[in-house]
Amino acid sequence: MSKSDDLKKQAALRALELVVSGMRLGLGTGSTAKHFVAGLGEKCAAGLDVKCVPTSEETRKQAEGLNIPLSNLDELGGLDLTVDGADEMDAGLTLIKGGGAALLREKIVAAASTRMIVIADESKLTERLGAFPLPVEVNPFAHETTAQMICEAISTNGLSGDVTLRGDDNPIMTDGGHYIYDCALGHIEDASSLSEALLNVPGVVEHGLFLGLATGAIIASDTGLKEFGEI
Ligand code: 5RP
Predict the structure, then answer these.
(1) Which of 58, 106, 137, 206 is catalytic?
(2) 64 included as an active-site residue
(3) With a 6 A CB cut-off, is 218 part of the ligand 1 pocket?
(4) Cβ pair 80, 24 in contact under 8 A
(5) 3-126+211-221 is classed CATH 3.40.50.1360
(6) CA gap 224, 85 in Å, rounded
(7) Which residues bind substrate (predicted)?
(8) What is the DSSP letter of 123?
(9) Which superfamily, per CATH, for 134-201?
């Protein structure tokens, strides 16, 4: 296991300590969340009683393979805890997500959770968001026109940078049947204003800025685990 993967696993194992029987859980997507789901599978095999909602088909497959009891959000009506990774996080718990193209379901699930705990290695922690290109999920219909409007929304926020279709000539399709444009902005000063401008573009389904959704974070580094917010 690489050093970074080991750190991801450490963060995931700490998050597993927060899980108790009876909980309704949101399961994140990505290489860090994968460690959490793997550990959860072991706990379920040992008798833990939880109901889970996966944030992607990839996570669903992993959870099904481990016999983790799955349900859906509409049936459960809400979640007690979601544990998910992030592409970037600042000290105020604002996130960029969507590197794994699962941002739409991740955001729906996080918004329906009383608690959302981010698990990550220290490389994800940043003073200023935006070095990671911001993913924006769009409807495939007239997506190039939508991309042009995304560029205008970015520009009215005083920002600039390449806006590229993920997958180029062979666009990747999200679980919801949408495309992703990655916006290489370098830095984001006002995430809230940018969020509003992007959501005002017809054709934009969601974007990867998670504002006020994470309630806590467990960040693993060489020197140990750091916790942010409420754990
Ligand atoms: C998927 C995500 C992931 O949480 C994010 O990309 C982090 O992934 P990893 O844990 O593999 O670094 O937002 O859409």
Answers:
(1) 106
(2) no
(3) no
(4) yes
(5) yes
(6) 18
(7) 29-32, 84-87, 97-100, 124
(8) G
(9) ACT domain (3.30.70.260)
pTM greater than 0.90: yes
Pocket lining: 146 vs ligand 1, CB cutoff 6 Å? no
**Do 166 and 182 meet the contact criterion of CB atoms below 8 Å apart?**
yes
In this structure, the residue with its CA closest to atom 4 of ligand 1 is 85
Nearest CA to ligand 1 atom 8: 30
Rounded distance, CA 56 to CA 103, Å? Answer: 9
Residue 58 Cα to ligand 1 middle (Å) = 12
Q: Give per-residue pLDDT as tens, 166-205.
A: 999 999 999 999 999 999 999 999 999 999 999 999 999 9
Q: Is 79 in the pocket of ligand 1 (CB under 6 A)?
A: no
| Helices 143-156, 191-199: inter-axial angle, 10-degree rounding | 150
Give start and end residues of each alpha helix (H) in the chain: 3-16, 31-45, 57-65, 73-76, 103-111, 143-156, 191-199
Q: What is the pLDDT of residues 139-158, one digit of tens each?
A: 999 999 999 999 999 999 99
